């Protein structure tokens, strides 16, 4: 009898209605797949590249949804949609770098369905890996993208180690710029990690992009009030100015005294397997006048050590200019790179 391959392999679908129930299901089913909005998840399942036996669907866990004020800022439930993040009045007013980043994700339909937890936890888009090729990230011992003829136009220029894939989350650098905290729970308890530590590169683990392990549930993201109302900049460059993944993006939060940069956080994504907080740039421009000289210096510093692949050398001037513009706060429409 012919084998039918045009359907997803079967799995047990579990639909908890509370966080407590979710955590006990995740503990009981060690390798269960967590399903949020499904936009990344269903790619893997429908392409039959990942074949979990158990899927835990978070869509019925109401306590994971919504944005609420806390004593020191805001708490965004993990299952809050990107549309709700982009349109939330307080996020728009006080933390607009995040609403801008969420607003630039893909299309309205994807933002209506996609969630903030899924956006920061999504996997890389490397063609080879997503097509099921047995590369390093998939547990093999080769990188198909890092060859003279590999399709690596979208890939990494920094911190690549065997795998040259990149993270493509638009909200991740904005959350790093805001010094957000990620709340992760298991049945044993909760841990709170800085946004920048949520993401990992191939030097830490080549098979995943975040610190999440089986059994972990990201429950919420906290935005401290520290950067409320700061000067923000978010910019995303993509192949088409309709819905598309970023080739690279940049997010910064800055506090000024007159023209002088007093405090700053800046992060880019699309340059490496994890969003990069640019601490050296922050240190170099702190105390400097916010002008083109500081922007030039920041851009040059940001790309130090960058190594292009065969087809992505353009990412070096791209990153240099994005960082420069982010320091200068140049409006998109008036800036030439
Ligand atoms: C056509 C298309 C275009 C896109 N363009 C962009 C873009 O321009 N910019 C951008 O940033 N993104 C883009 N995306 C990604 C999209 O925005 C979604 O954010 C992303 O795919 C996943 O969100 P989701 O809610 O659908 O999560 P899912 O796909 O369900 O989950 C994604 C991953 O996160 C894990 N996960 C989810 N929630 C939790 C949790 N609470 N705890 C533990 N693990 C969890 C899942 O197990 C899965 O591995 C695009 C996606 C598509 C399909
Ligand atoms: S870049 Fe990474 S994900 Fe892509 S083929 Fe190479 S090892 Fe695999």
Order of strands, main sheet, comes to 4-5-8-6-7
Radius of gyration: 20 Å
**How is the main sheet built?**
5 strands, antiparallel
Number of helices: 13
Q: Helical amount among residues, as a percent range? A: 25-40%
Give a list of the ligands: flavin-adenine dinucleotide, iron/sulfur cluster
The run of helices and strands is EHEHEEEHHHHHHHEEHEEEEEHHH
User: Which structural class should the secondary elements be placed in?
Assistant: alpha+beta
What is the straight-line distance between the termini? 60 Å
The overall pLDDT, averaged over residues, is: 95
Low-confidence stretches: 332-337
Proportion of residues in extended strands: 15-25%
Q: What is the approximate shape?
A: globular
Number of strands: 12
What does the model show?
The protein is 28% helix and 20% strand. The chain has 13 helices and 12 strands. The protein has helices spanning 19-28, 41-46, 82-87, 89-94, 96-103, 108-113, 116-121, 127-130, 171-177, 195-198, 279-285, 292-302, 315-328, and strands spanning 12-14, 33-35, 54-57, 67-70, 73-77, 181-186, 189-194, 217-224, 231-237, 248-257, 260-269, 276-277. The strands form 3 sheets. Strands 4-5-8-6-7 form a 5-stranded antiparallel sheet. It has a 4-stranded antiparallel sheet with strand order 9-10-11-12, with helices on both faces. Strands 1-3-2 form a 3-stranded parallel sheet, with helices on one face. A hairpin with a 2-residue loop joins strand 4 (67-70) and strand 5 (73-77). The longest helix is centred in the C-terminal third of the chain and has 14 residues, at 315-328. Residues 124, 126, 128-129, 135-137, 143-146, 155, 163-165 line the site of iron/sulfur cluster (SF4).
